[in-house]
Write a structure and sequence with these properties.
single chain; mainly alpha; two-stranded antiparallel sheet; 75% helix
Length: 275
């Protein structure tokens, strides 16, 4: 008879089917395994990349030529404002797919298989989110590339653009926890998408992503000032356009940390109850 040995660092709860304690090293290893699984799914379903490959090209061209003259008088002058804003919007849009895909997998019973495995509760959630960081990197890179092809010249140079992309990836990963939580509490993928869009559109369009905040009504400027997306956009602008690590970068990272601290436990707790 074949016996299956279990890691001494894992303490399983037979009633729940999930471990009550998993070491940090095992959690990291299991998360990377789940990330690799999600990456394989992406390779076999290239449609999952459409929102981070086609959308940046379309949105950059449309927004630049539609609003460029009205906002800045010229498309080339509008690009330093637009490109960082579009990066935030594109990454946030890509985050929505995280929660929707999670809900679809849960409805199909995919996560029922993980219930009997002695793995960390957070690994099935964090793994796909780690894989999605590849999608955020593609979205940010293509947005910058499209802007440069249209005449955008980032003053921060390669280093500034690279740091802006890293910040966008960090922001995407942290905000994805919000939509992951939606995926665990929503009754269907359509409901999760509806919740997500109701959050995404106000955060992106009621920010300084596409127009200077000073041009907005006073009451709306107050909302924009406290909108976390505005801090991310300002941080990306300072990195890409000036190559400077301003206070906005710190506020953006602080906001990312707060989002993770709040929504990661909520998502894990809700996910554990669902399965």
């Amino acid at each position: 008879m074949t016996t299956i040995s279990r890691s001494p660092d894992v303490t399983a709860d037979p009633a729940a089917g999930l471990p009550t304690h998993v070491s940090l090293a095992d959690t990291f290893s299991q998360t990377m395994t789940m990330a690799w699984r999600a990456t394989l799914k992406m390779r076999r379903n290239f449609e999952q990349f459409f929102d981070v490959t086609i959308q940046p090209l379309l949105f950059t061209a449309m927004f630049a030529y539609i609003f460029g003259g009205a906002v800045s008088g010229d498309v080339s002058k509008y690009l330093p404002i637009l490109i960082p804003g579009l990066i935030a919007q594109t990454v946030l849009t890509a985050c929505v797919a995280t929660g929707v895909q999670l809900r679809e997998d849960m409805d199909k019973g995919v996560f029922d298989r993980f219930r009997v495995l002695p793995i960390s509760r957070i690994a099935p959630l964090a793994g796909p989110m780690v894989a999605d960081m590849l999608r955020y990197a593609i979205a940010a890179t293509l947005t910058f590339a499209t802007g440069i092809a249209m005449g955008y010249r980032p003053g921060g140079g390669f280093f500034g653009v690279f740091c802006a992309i890293i910040l966008a990836i960090i922001t995407g990963w942290s905000l994805a926890w919000v939509f992951t939580w939606f995926g665990t509490v929503g009754k269907s993928a359509q409901v999760v998408q509806g919740y997500s869009l109701m959050v995404m559109f106000p955060l992106t369009f009621l920010s300084n992503a596409f127009v200077p905040a000073s041009t907005l009504p006073d009451w709306l400027q107050t909302f924009v000032k406290f909108n976390p997306v505005s801090h991310v956009v300002s941080a990306v602008r300072s990195l890409a356009n000036q190559g400077q690590f301003t206070g906005e970068v710190g506020w953006a990272l602080l906001g990312c940390g707060i989002v993770i601290a709040i929504f990661a436990p909520l998502a894990v707790r809700s996910f554990s109850r669902k399965i």
